[in-house]
Design brief:
This protein is an alpha/beta fold. It is built from nine helices and 14 strands. The chain has a seven-stranded mixed sheet, with helices on one face. It has a seven-stranded mixed sheet with strand order 7-8-9-10-11-12-13. Zinc ion is lined by residues 59, 61, 160, 190.
Length: 289
């Protein structure tokens, strides 16, 4: 299994692209989230963009989906003719339908009409723009969401904002567990400590874990609220890795308050709980299992 961190930053971090992880196993090329730069970074990594399938979305914050349509259109313009499966929490279907039927409807129509015209004039054009909208989208929840000859992907709800007091606000975030080639990789999604991430990461060979800020930044009400309910600090990710018994953890979803110079401080926080391998994620980092 080959894991490429395409983007390891947050919306306001100018030094890193946003959440996207490519996992290749056998003939499968799977993308987990499609944050800003996902397509650009797949180009940089030399990935087979036309073969990406499926795409798994953890949740609907912009930094996880803002390149989703770019993945759909770029893969088609680079030769994709297969139906691309997309999995994500409740609401994913509606978002993709809006992209196709509303936001980019004119763009899709443009490409179809453009190619018709080129062909009418006797020109040649290999791409089939109809493939842009050739997607099979599934709103999924807890359980096995995808199985192929190469791998199995299981989803579980994780805790990235708890709005139980706002009943009309359905906010869901998933993490994913990928089992292939006798190995396990877990994508945390955005989450603080919760049962979901512990189940997903149980004994994993690699945990790709969001770690938003150093614990030293958790000094006021806003940051304490964030660290308790939305995104973990360096003091929590070691607890997650230790409790789940993972062999190795790579940190991602790094705000601008985390950089290479801060790694010793972050690692000291993590070492309070976890003795395994810890890596600071970098854009285009490749991990082989
Ligand atoms: Zn988020």
């Amino acid at each position: 299994m080959r894991v490429t961190l395409l983007g390891t930053g947050t919306p306001t971090n100018p030094h890193r692209f946003q959440s996207a992880v490519l996992i290749e196993s056998g003939s499968s090329v799977m993308l987990f989230d499609a944050g800003r730069g996902a397509v650009h970074q797949m180009h940089q990594a030399g990935s087979a963009i036309d073969r990406v399938n499926p795409v798994f979305i953890t949740h609907h914050h912009i930094d996880h989906i803002n390149d989703l349509f770019d993945v759909m259109i770029s893969s088609a313009m680079l030769g994709r003719s297969h139906e691309m499966k997309i999995f994500g929490p409740s609401g994913t279907k509606e978002i993709v339908r809006a992209l196709i039927e509303k936001v980019y409807a004119q763009d899709i129509r443009f490409r179809i009409e453009e190619i018709k015209e080129i062909r009418r004039l006797g020109g040649d054009f290999a791409e089939e723009p109809e493939a842009i909208a050739l997607v099979d989208v599934h709103d999924v929840g807890s359980g096995v969401v995808f199985e192929s000859d190469d791998c199995r992907v299981t989803a579980e709800y994780v805790r990235h904002g708890d709005f139980a007091h706002v009943p009309d606000f359905k906010w869901r975030c998933l993490g994913y567990r990928i089992e292939a080639e006798g190995k396990v990789v877990t994508i945390s999604g955005d989450t603080v400590m919760c049962d979901g991430i512990i189940d997903l990461a149980d004994g994993a060979d690699l945990l790709v874990q969001c770690c938003h800020m150093p614990q030293s930044k958790v000094t006021n009400i806003a940051m304490k609220y964030l660290a308790t309910n939305i995104l973990p600090s360096s003091a929590q990710v070691g607890k997650i890795a230790a409790q789940a018994g993972v062999k190795r953890m790579v940190l991602t979803h790094l705000s601008a308050t985390i950089n290479r110079d801060k790694f010793a401080e972050i690692l000291a926080d993590i070492r309070q709980d976890y003795e395994g391998d810890v890596l600071l994620g970098e854009d285009l980092m490749v991990l082989k299992l």
